[in-house]
Amino acid sequence: MSAADTAAAAPPPEAQLGAMVFAVLLLDRGDVIRQANPASEDMLGSSAARLIGCPFGQAVRIPDRRVGESFADQDTRLIARGIAIETAAGERAVNLTSSPMPAFPGWRVVTLSDVGQAALDIAEAPVPISAPSVLAHEIKNPLCAIRGASQLLERRSDERSRPLARMISQEVDRIAALIDRMQQLGSRSAPVIESCNLHEVVRNALGVVAAAQGGGVRFVEEFDPSLPAVDVDRVSLEQILINLLSNACDASDSLVEAEIIIRTRYVGGLVFSAMRLGRTVRLPIELSVIDRGPGVPSELREHIFEPFVTGRKNGQGLGLALVQKLVRDMGGRIGHHRDDATGTTQFRLNLPISIAGGDA
Length: 360
Fold this sequence. Notes:
Number of strands: 14
Oligomer: single chain
Mean pLDDT: 80
Low-confidence stretches: 116-131
Number of helices: 12
Strand order of the largest sheet: 2-1-5-4-3-6-8
Shape: globular
Helix content: 25-40%
Distance between the termini: 47 Å
Structural class: alpha+beta
């Protein structure tokens, strides 16, 4: 059979869309639904005839504010997993994608697919309180009482006893903060993937850390200005960078002239892969945070991303575990390397290029 015969025998696009098990919607510049495949009728609880010509916001309500704000930008590629939506068919948990059409500004294709019956049952039923949440709740209640009592004791104590009362209050705050970080590790909130300018996010994080350091550390930017945009959860990436930069500052506090390098580059042949939504995603954009501190003890280097592993005297060992979780949730990769020859420690973050494109 010739190539022409094969092309002629292929099902038309309408039949291909009709065979899809997930909802596919075409939105115009005004976010009005212009096409809807048969799976959309079941997903949204309305016939295609009613959906076509209906504003998307009337057919689908997105309660999550962050997802809703990202979705409102028609030119941003969006991937949101496990989010709740409200339709005429009721509330359900879905994976949502929004793909702009560069050749037709303002137009985009939106897909909605069930995350699976198990996830759907969780979304529609009252969420049970997990054992860790119960434990955190039971610990925090007495902590509040202890803190209140210590503040009262501090006001009523003499000068010699007040430091002890103040220490109790400070230790209570430390334990409460530890519990909060442990709860973050167990969080299952879905990342909001969008096209981002990597250097813009880096500079936001740098601003936060530099303000906290008060000028004690010199930050050196070694950016590749030609890098394209990346597909990430912007809020999570900023938190990741704040953690890594803060750790680098702590590692450098014994140095006379502390310097931290933030480097971005395209890794070329060194392309890593990660699984996102059941497919392989290339991760060629590399961001490194480099410091000249003493580094992690050699016996801990293979375990630094595990909870409660730390080389710092007063460290909790949760920061890097949280960083790894956030990176994995948005489909990236993070690694650690100590170069004893140059006396540097590097944390390397690999991220995917945005399909929507754009320059960083």
